[in-house]
Amino acid sequence: MRVSVDEAGALLSRSDSAGRRRRSTSPRPPGARGGGLLRRQSSSFREDVGHAASETYLVSRLTFSLLQYLGLGYRWMSKLLALTIYAILLMPGFIQVGYYYFFSSQVRRSIVYGDQPRNRLDLYIPEDNSRPCPVMAFVTGGAWIIGYKAWGALLGRRLAERGIIVACIDYRNFPQGTIGDMVKDASQGISFVCNNIASYGGDPNQIYLMGQSAGAHIAACALMEQAVMESRGQPVSWSVTQIKAYFGLSGGYNIHNLVDHFNERGLHRSIFLSIMEGEESLSRYSPEIVAKKSSAETIALLPLIVLMHGTEDYSVPSSASQTFVDVLQNAGAQAKLLLYEGKTHTDIFLQDPLRGGRDPLVEDILSIIHADDAIARQKIALAPIPRRLVYVISEAKFASVDFMPSHEERLELYVELVDGKKDEEFHGWDNGGAEFLETQTEPDSQVQLTETAKGK
C-alpha cells in the first residue's frame, strides 16, 4: 500500500510534536541553587539526546514511507545498498561531524521560521562574533526526496570556523510536498534570515545565498521568483537586493533537459514529474528558462551568481551550470562559472572536506565574500589547515558508483592513501575487488601494498 502526501505530512506532524514534547522542560523555581547546575547540565544533555532521537525517528519513518510510495524495485534496492556501503565507509567522519552538530555550543538547531512541520533551520555561529558576521543561507540537496538541514553540518562547520554564520534551511520533501512547497519553504527561510539574523550576530548587509544539488535548484527558483515579483511591484517579505551573491553547487537549472537523464539514473520519469507538479510546470521551475524570459528590470535585480560544478559529475552534468551561466550573461546578469577538474557530484561538498587539507570550495566562497576585505583574507590565509576526518575516501567514492575500480585505479588508491601516512590503519580493495585488506602503513607494508596493487 502506498502512502499519500497527506499521510506523510500527518506522520511528520506527529513526530515533530513528539519532539517538541521531549524538548519541553518544567519551570525551575528562581531560588534553586546548589545541585541546580548539575541538574541543568543533565537536563540539557537529555534534551539533546531526545532531540537527536526525535529527528532520527522522523527521518527513518519518512524514509520507509518513501520506499512504500516508490515500491522496492531492484534498481532502487541496488542504489540503496550502494548508498548504505558509502555511508558505512564514511561513518568515522560522519560520527565526528554528528558529535559537533548535536553537542557544539556553536550550533543552534531547529530554529522555527514558519508554521509547517519542516520549517526549521540550523545556525552555525563562529566562536568570535564580537562584530557582525557575514551570513550564508544554505539550502541542502537530496534529490528533492531526502533533503535535510543536517546535511549542511560539514559546510556549516567549515565556514563558521572562518567567521561566517551559516543558516541551513530545512524544507518539505517529496512525498510530503512538491516543488512548489519546497520553493515556498526555502523562500520563507531566506526571509527569516534576512529579517532576523542581526539578533544572532549576523550582518544584515552581508547575506549570501547558496544551494547544493537539488538545493541549488530550489534556491535558484526562489531567487528568480522573488526577482520577478519584486520587479512587478508585488509585495515581498525579503528583497533580492539583500542577497550579495548566490552560489549554486552542482545544480540543475533547466528541468526539461534533466527528465530523461534522471530517468536513466533511477529517478523515474513519473516520480520526477510528480515532484515537479507535472510536465506543464517544468518551465516555471526551470530558473534558466525563467531568466531567459525575464524582463531587463528583473535581471537587473539579481545579485552576482556563481555556479560551481565538478567536471566528472554524472548525477547532474556540468553542462547544466554552463548553459545557465551563458543565459544569464546574455541577459545582462553578473554570472560566472567555476569548474572543478575531475570532481564528481559529491567530491567538492563531502569527500574533499572529509579528506582534510585545502578546501577549494570554501576558499572560492571566501574569496568572493571577502573580496573587499584584505584583513579578513589575510586571517584566512593564516588559519590552520583542516585535519583529515576519514581515511577511506577512495573506497567510498568507488562504492558510490556503478563499477568496481580497475587495476590502475586500485594502484592509484593505494598510492593516495599510503603515501606519507604512517601508523594509520589502512583499508583497501584487494585484487578481487570484493574483500578488504587491513594492515599498517609502515615502510615494509607500503612495499607490500604496492606489490599487491601491481598483482605481484
UniProtKB/TrEMBL annotation:
Q: How does it sit in the membrane?
A: Multi-pass membrane protein
User: Which Gene Ontology molecular function entries are recorded, alphabetically?
Assistant: hydrolase activity
Biased amino acid composition, Polar residues: 438-456
Q: Which organism is it from?
A: Eleusine coracana subsp. coracana
Keyword Transmembrane helix attributed? yes
Q: What job does the chain carry out?
A: Catalyzes the demethylation of isoprenylcysteine methylesters.
Query: Where is the major localization of this protein?
Result: endoplasmic reticulum
Q: What are its E.C. numbers?
A: 3.1.1.n2
Q: Which reaction is catalysed here?
A: [protein]-C-terminal S-[(2E,6E)-farnesyl]-L-cysteine methyl ester + H2O = [protein]-C-terminal S-[(2E,6E)-farnesyl]-L-cysteine + methanol + H(+)
From the UniProt entry, list the residue stretches annotated as the region Disordered. Answer: 1-38, 429-456
Q: Which key words tag this protein in UniProt?
A: Endoplasmic reticulum, Golgi apparatus, Hydrolase, Membrane, Transmembrane, Transmembrane helix
Q: Where in the cell is it found?
A: Endoplasmic reticulum membrane; Golgi apparatus membrane
User: Does the keyword Endoplasmic reticulum feature in the UniProt annotation?
Assistant: yes
Q: Which Pfam families match?
A: BD-FAE (PF20434)
What name has this protein been given in UniProt?
A: protein-S-isoprenylcysteine alpha-carbonyl methylesterase
Q: What is the top EC class of this enzyme, as a single word?
A: hydrolase
User: Per its UniProt record, what Gene3D superfamilies does this chain match?
Assistant: alpha/beta hydrolase
For this protein, the parts annotated as crossing the membrane are 80-102
> What PANTHER family does its record include?
AB HYDROLASE SUPERFAMILY PROTEIN C4A8.06C (PTHR48081), KYNURENINE FORMAMIDASE (PTHR48081:SF33)
